[in-house]
Task: structure prediction
Amino acid sequence: MDLQAAINRFIPDRRTVTAIGAMEPDGPRLSIAGSIDLESSKPIQDLLVWVIENQEGRSCLTVDMERVEYISSTGVGALTLALMAARKRDMRIKLRNIQPQVGSVFRLLGLLSYFETEETRG
Amino acid sequence: MDKPRIDPTGAHIESRMSMLALTAELCGIFARDESENANIAATNSIKRSFGAEEAALFYITGQKVFRVCVSGTDFPIALPEKRWRDCVESHMGGMSVSRFGAWAIPAIGKPLASWISVCLYMSGDEGGYVFLGRDSGSWSDRDEQSLDSIRSAIAPIVQVRHERGIEEHRRKEAETLLAKNESRLRDLFEGSREMIYTADDQDLITGANAAAVKLLGLSSKAAIIGRPFADFAMAPLERKLFLDKIAKHGYVDEHEIVLVRKGGEPVFCLETAHALKDESGAVRELQGIVKDISGRIENEKKLWKMNLELAEANLKLQKSQALMVQQEKLASIGQLAAGVAHEINNPLGFLISNNAMLERYFGSIRAAIAELAPDRERSAPKASAKLERTFSEAESIFAESGEGFGRIVKIVGGLKNFSRVDSSGTYSEYDLNAGVESSLVVAWNEIKFVAEVRRDLRDIPRIRANGGEINQVVLNILVNAAQAIGGTGRDGKGLIEIATRATDETVLLSIKDDGPGIPEAARNKIFDPFFTTKEPGKGTGLGLSISYDIVVAKHGGTIWVESERGAGTTFYISLPIAGPPSGTGA
Result:
């Protein structure tokens, strides 16, 4: 199963959240759009963990958050659990272009510092 | 209704007049007084008009109370239902007037000889009844007719009155219930431990309960009402998303929102809300319940952090364990090699001395033969030529052996020097140039077929270092260089250039190869543990990580790399001459 097939499998219902997969030099990238809320957290978590477990030898998973407008604590929890899965495999998770309101939920929970963050917007 | 009968006698007219007067009186009573007291007055009037000794009115009130009004009493009397029904049902024959003999209203009235009764009205299954009793003489047919005509005249009034009573009672009951419900709803709203609010179509708060005031850390509702809800949200932009969702679906379930208390403290909340819409579908009002879940979030946060730190610690442990194992392995290999070198050293000693001795003996034999048979070339030219050839070959053999022994000595010396068994684990005077040489000896087997080595080892001061460890680093880089060149599969040999320089406080070693170079993406990871570009089995990904640890952490030096794709790689190692600064390494 490739990245896109995995996305279709884990997020069949694209009402609240969607994702697009791509490969970067140091590993896969998932670009997420929409709301990571109570409902969509679980599918996102399952998708991330699947990607981490099926990218042997890659050192980094990039999650592009530019189009994520809302995240709940459950959403932050989903990313945290994915990070735990990644650390078990000595893989990093890089959060790219986090919107301020989303970043502040991570910060309030004191979990932002565990992730790598990156700004590619000008 | 009965037809009026023609009665020529005056008595009849008088009776009719009296009944008309009674009808008028009763209408007056009922018109004046809407309360039950009117029934007492009516009972007394009927008693008087009919010349009865006792009159009673049986009826059921709107509140379903079974009543009897007895003439001469001041209040209507409530009866148990069974007794009320016993009285009414045993003496009534449908709607018509009935007459019966001696009876008394149980426990209330006096016993009288003759009774007449009539059903005044029926409302549903229940009715109202008039009873008249007298002792002197029985009830006549005329009395019966009179009672019937009174019934006909006032039945509609009494019935309407009765039904209005019921209606009134129901209304009062409904009002009471409504008032009770309203108060219950108000209590529910006000007393709820969760914030409840209402907002208008512009999301301006129109109502909020006490829990809202508490949750937001405010002192009164006035600080909430009239303000946009977004004022209390940490991310006002998100509130717009929420409003869009509610406008679309009509409700939002368990939406997490971060509210900000007065003073700036954030509170994680779950909001469930719905919209009241008008006929056109536009939102008219929002009603929402907001639950404070910050306690739960706090616990989850702790759990997540703990797990993350655990995962991190676990990873570190795995890495350092592997590093330790590898380091231990390298150290034992070095010690083993040094042990073997030491073992070889003794036999090598007597082999060298024996070889030299043998060479000398051969020289002596040659000289002796020359002395014993000076004219052998003439007397035995063939044998003599053979002997000369043998001696000359033996000479080259001795020379070759000498060179071989010399190389063994160098290798053994290199091995001994490389692992420095005599000073393992300590910091002492160390000659980096000699270290490079001994590392070359050990690595030679890897290098000799793939690359030439060009040395530019300048005169540099000795440094304070753990020589065994630095040699390990040099060996590692040399082997990497050889493997990098060998991996290109080129024709002919590559080149490894080794140079040493000294500055005021440091010595610098550079090892340059002309291999394929390190890809840019990998360049900042080569010192990470387990990072390897080699095929499985060829590298653990620990060599450079250990080198980094030895140079930077243990010796306070620096190690860096310059590489260009296709043009080769240069590793630089800079080490302080004075040894590791205090606090670093050993």
